[in-house]
């Protein structure tokens, strides 16, 4: 806000780039910026707004100047909204890759995919499918399956390979996997054989040592009963028999040297013998323990090496699928840019961005991955270390809170923020200034005070000293005059029939709404989608209006399910299940549903044609998109579900452009993605939100309910950790993968340190998730934990109990504790009024199409040929935004149509004539924002679709392609397009009709 409003610097918003973590946070940030600008532009009293007061003081301006400046900036931003750059870091990298696709040797028409699990699933299936064809791979897979059978596990190795394959998409493993990229399957096989041999050697050494101990026992005429509990000789016997499924946890094993090997009641002679032999037994025991840990290390390496051996093969299949389908996983973005810029002092891909942006803001920096940060440094350095024409230098503002770092599983590295803060890293010449933001602008007093006190107390249970200091010294936030607030902690006892968390949540919702609050004021925060679904199912059954991850899935909407059944029936009219689903939807309101269904199951086609005008035969030539639009109109589906229908149409349009208009293509796409396609969370709906804590980061809610607050601080889940090994001992491998477990503390100092560091980070992750959940609330925070507290400090429940205990508040017979008071709403606020944009089918009715085709049929052969070529060229131009997209577009059209050599040459020639025409060249530059065939709904709900709109810095040009002779109606149509764009706040620079005949003739209207 300061940069935008500073009268001395006059920084235009087009030179600012703000980056945050999620799309929801992007929306909230934009809303806050615009909302504050509007608020300041209407402000009369400086004291009425503390932020305005601070800005006036910081910028040395009066309230009147602030008001006028805010008005002007708001107007400029709204009129040039496309230049208002608040974005996610993934979108920024995507735009860079898209712009420089050719230079990066990537297909320019690539599609971004988030469905890495589906991609990996197919890649693993393809790899397994090569069994019996690839001899080396076949032998390896067979051995792996047989080993699993020997270990009494399922022979099916798909899950093992799938789980290992996930490493390919995780940034934290990228560096290590790159080092192993050149290792062949044979290299892995040789190491595998060596590990097996070494494991066998260690086992023989253990057995030999156990043999020696038993020989000493026998040669001294000692019985097993002479030893305390017979423990030592029994343990030796177990190992001698080759049973290595043992541990060293028992008390007698922990202090073997210190305690005698016999009971107090043993005869003195036995005591004397065992005392004499104790040192010899201790040496054997230590030797066995040492060999056992060496064996455990090798076994752990071997267990991970076997599936990892196929990783390169899986990676090849992943790349093959990506090339076939022209897709790029979002997880590849950072590595592509990192690889491109690593050897360039001034990366070419940043040249244009570096000229455009001078001031950078990165929000939620604690979740920025190491690779993302390294990729951004060269771009930001250009702004910080260079000056513009007015000799003004750029700036960088990093905003973050290490306590809110909860995306480590996605590569987020909170430690890099700590290193910057502590001065351990200095990537720029410019020295940073560090400001602690102690003011809490979100929450009311009681919530701030509770969180300050709780986290200061909980900090002492953190293992790592740096993390402990972070929570000790950085939790004392100050209130910004929001008095009141309410916190309630409830410890719930288990119930056999009902989930106590669901029951208590329902009770709280009732209490809150009884006090006048809206459902939309409430957000329920949970750890994962499974818990979200569980809560949503319960609350829905109690008729609580909800917005949850499940409720937003397209597949859960009735109208969408009906349309999918309709498509399945069109594809296969004999599919009785889809016939049934269609009729159930259409007759849902009928009391005698069965009587309505039976007569129509065998005559569905006739019923749909006669009752709804939905003629299956007339749809044979239509695209999936057109069929869906027509079905929505014919069956009157528009209404409350319009958001779902728009999303379904968008998906159909996208599939049509990539895979063709056939129903089969869309149904296959739907099968793969139905579990992930969803709406964004709607605003203005009076419904309780259910959200994961990770999705809620950066957001705020009036009332927060936090159920299931009983998680372990260190969950014990096995993680994959890389350890360094001596290459000469491991056939040239200098690193191997281990599954984390407590045994790692015995694998040597370096491995033990890696394990300890992972434990500390896991604990910090748990604290940070708790911190994020407890700092989202504005007015009230309800924490629902478990009454079964197993440990004082190993679970969230334990932390809460320990905190209350220290404050002298804990009572064994009390399960609920409150701080502050929940105030009622004197007047319920109404959800925002929303104006629904009607769904307007653009598909041409069959009769209209038939008439149009009949006119074409009556045309002369020469005219027919001209019309066909005109349509072909028009289709091509609708897919071309920039000059560099021409080859890919022609290639795509060739793959979708049966084009002759003459057609291809015609396309290449005419497109070249258009984009390189001296009067038109400027409209195909790659620094423009381009919209081809973009639907625009006018004030009277009329639909307009200009062929091409290009925008640069809020100035637009509108272009339409025509054939034949110039006509006034063409000009009138173009003027109408221009007028509606002007009404949207754009300045119209050019209105161009491009006549495509034997020659290209542009007419500027």
Automatic annotation (TrEMBL):
Catalytically driven reaction(s): ATP + H2O = ADP + phosphate + H(+); Couples ATP hydrolysis with the unwinding of duplex DNA by translocating in the 3'-5' direction
Coiled coil spans: none
GO terms, biological process: recombinational repair
Keywords recorded for this protein, A-Z: ATP-binding, DNA damage, DNA repair, DNA-binding, Exonuclease, Helicase, Hydrolase, Isomerase, Nuclease, Nucleotide-binding
Cellular component GO terms held in the UniProt record: cytosol
Classification lineage: Bacteria, Pseudomonadati, Bacteroidota, Flavobacteriia, Flavobacteriales
Organism: Flagellimonas lutaonensis
GO MF terms held by the record: 3'-5' DNA helicase activity; ATP binding; ATP hydrolysis activity; DNA binding; exonuclease activity
EC number assigned by the record: 5.6.2.4
Alphabetical list of Pfam families matching this protein: PDDEXK_1 (PF12705), UvrD-helicase (PF00580), UvrD_C (PF13361)
All copies of domain UvrD-like helicase ATP-binding, residue ranges: 1-444
Chain ranges of the UvrD-like helicase C-terminal domain: 445-698
Protein's name in the database: DNA 3'-5' helicase
Transmembrane segments: none
EC supergroup of this enzyme: isomerase
InterPro entries for the chain: DNA_helicase_UvrD-like_C, DNA_helicase_UvrD/REP, P-loop_NTPase, PDDEXK-like_dom_sf, PDDEXK_AddAB-type, UvrD-like_ATP-bd
Classification via SUPFAM superfamilies: P-loop containing nucleoside triphosphate hydrolases
């Amino acid at each position: 806000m300061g940069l935008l409003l500073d009268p001395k610097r006059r920084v235009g918003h087009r030179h600012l780039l703000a980056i945050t973590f999620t799309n929801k946070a992007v929306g909230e940030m934009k809303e806050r910026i615009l909302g504050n600008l509007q608020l300041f532009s209407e402000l009369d009293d400086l004291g009425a707004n503390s932020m305005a007061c601070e800005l006036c003081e910081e910028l040395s301006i009066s309230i009147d100047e602030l008001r006028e400046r805010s008005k002007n900036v708001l107007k400029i931003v709204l009129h040039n909204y496309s230049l208002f750059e608040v974005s996610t870091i993934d979108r920024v990298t995507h735009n860079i890759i898209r712009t420089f696709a050719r230079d990066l040797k990537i297909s320019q028409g690539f599609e971004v995919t988030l469905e890495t699990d589906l991609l990996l699933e197919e890649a693993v299936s393809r790899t397994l499918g090569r069994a019996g064809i690839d001899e080396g791979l076949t032998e390896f897979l067979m051995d792996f399956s047989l080993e699993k059978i020997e270990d009494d596990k399922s022979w099916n190795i798909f899950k093992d390979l799938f789980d290992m394959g996930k490493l390919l998409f995780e940034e934290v493993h990228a560096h290590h996997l790159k080092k192993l990229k050149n290792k062949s399957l044979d290299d892995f096989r040789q190491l595998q054989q060596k590990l097996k041999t070494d494991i066998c050697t260690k086992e023989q050494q253990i057995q030999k040592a156990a043999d020696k101990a038993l020989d000493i026992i026998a040669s001294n005429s000692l019985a097993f009963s002479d030893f305390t509990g017979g423990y030592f000789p029994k343990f030796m016997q177990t190992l001698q028999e080759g049973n290595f499924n043992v541990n060293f946890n028992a008390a007698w094993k922990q202090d073997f040297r210190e305690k005698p090997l016999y009971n107090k009641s043993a005869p003195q002679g036995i005591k004397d013998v065992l005392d004499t032999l104790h040192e010899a037994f201790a040496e054997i025991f230590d030797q066995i323990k040492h060999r056992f840990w060496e064996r455990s290390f090798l076994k752990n390496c071997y267990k991970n090496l076997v599936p990892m051996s196929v990783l390169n093969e899986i990676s090849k299949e992943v790349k093959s699928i990506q090339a076939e389908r022209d897709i790029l996983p979002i997880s590849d973005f950072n590595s592509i840019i990192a690889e491109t810029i690593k050897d360039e002092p001034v990366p070419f891909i940043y040249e244009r961005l570096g000229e455009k942006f001078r001031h950078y803001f990165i929000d939620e920096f604690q979740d920025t991955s190491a690779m993302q940060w390294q990729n951004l440094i060269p771009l930001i350095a250009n702004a910080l270390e260079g000056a513009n024409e007015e000799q003004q230098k750029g700036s960088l503002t990093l905003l973050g809170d290490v306590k809110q770092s909860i995306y480590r599983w996605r590569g987020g590295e909170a430690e890099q923020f700590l290193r910057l803060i502590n001065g351990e890293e200095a990537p720029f010449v410019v020295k940073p200034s560090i400001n602690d933001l102690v003011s809490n602008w979100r929450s009311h007093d009681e919530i701030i005070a509770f969180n300050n006190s709780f986290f200061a107390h909980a900090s002492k249970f953190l293992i790592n000293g740096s993390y402990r200091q972070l929570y000790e010294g950085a939790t004392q936030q100050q209130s910004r005059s929001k008095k009141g607030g309410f916190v309630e902690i409830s410890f719930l006892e288990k119930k056999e029939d009902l989930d106590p968390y669901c029951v208590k949540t329902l009770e709280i919702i009732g209490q809150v709404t009884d006090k006048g609050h809206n459902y939309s004021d409430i957000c329920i925060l949970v750890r994962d989608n499974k818990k979200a679904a569980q809560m949503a199912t319960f609350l829905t059954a109690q008729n609580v209006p909800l917005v949850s991850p499940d409720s937003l899935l397209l597949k859960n909407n009735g109208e969408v399910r009906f349309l999918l059944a309709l498509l399945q029936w069109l594809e296969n009219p004999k599919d009785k299940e889809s016939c049934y689903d269609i009729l159930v939807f259409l007759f849902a309101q009928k009391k005698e549903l069965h009587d309505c269904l039976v007569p129509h199951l065998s005559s569905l086609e006739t019923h749909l044609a006669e009752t709804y005008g939905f003629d299956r035969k007339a749809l044979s030539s239509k695209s999936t998109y057109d069929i869906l639009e027509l079905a929505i109109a014919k069956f009157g589906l528009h209404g409350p579900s319009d958001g779902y229908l728009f999303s379904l149409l968008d998906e159909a349009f996208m599939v049509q452009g990539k895979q063709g208009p056939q129903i089969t293509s869309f149904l296959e796409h739907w099968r793969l993605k139905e579990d992930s396609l969803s709406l964004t969370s709607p605003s203005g709906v009076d419904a309780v939100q259910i959200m994961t804590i990770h999705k809620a980061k950066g957001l705020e809610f009036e009332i927060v309910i936090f159920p299931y607050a009983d998680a372990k601080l260190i969950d014990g889940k096995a993680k994959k950790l890389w350890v360094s090994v001596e290459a000469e001992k491991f056939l040239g491998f200098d690193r191997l993968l281990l599954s984390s477990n407590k045994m790692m503390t015995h694998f040597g100092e370096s491995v033990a340190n890696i394990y300890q560091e992972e434990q500390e980070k896991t604990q910090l992750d748990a604290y940070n998730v708790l911190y994020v959940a407890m700092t989202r609330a504005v007015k009230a925070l309800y924490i629902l934990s478990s009454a079964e507290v197993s440990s004082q400090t190993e679970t969230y429940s334990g932390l809460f109990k320990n905190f209350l205990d220290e404050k002298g508040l804990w009572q064994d017979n009390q399960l609920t504790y409150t701080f502050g008071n929940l105030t009622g709403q004197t007047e319920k606020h109404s959800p925002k009024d929303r104006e629904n944009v009607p769904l307007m089918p653009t598909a041409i009715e069959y009769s209209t199409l038939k008439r149009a085709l009949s006119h074409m049929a009556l045309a002369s052969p020469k005219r027919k040929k001209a019309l066909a070529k005109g349509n072909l060229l028009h289709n091509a131009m609708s897919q071309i935004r920039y000059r560099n997209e021409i080859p890919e577009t022609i290639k795509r059209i060739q793959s979708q149509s049966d084009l002759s050599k003459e057609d291809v040459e015609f396309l290449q020639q005419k497109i070249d004539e258009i984009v390189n025409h001296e009067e038109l060249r400027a409209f195909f530059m790659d620094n423009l924002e381009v919209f081809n065939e973009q639907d625009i709904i006018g004030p009277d709900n009329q639909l307009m679709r200009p062929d091409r709109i290009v925008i640069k810095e809020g100035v637009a040009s509108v272009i339409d392609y025509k054939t034949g002779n110039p006509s006034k109606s063409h000009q009138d149509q173009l003027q109408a397009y221009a007028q509606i764009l002007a009404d949207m706040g754009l300045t119209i620079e050019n209105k161009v009709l491009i006549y495509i005949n034997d020659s290209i003739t542009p007419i500027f209207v």
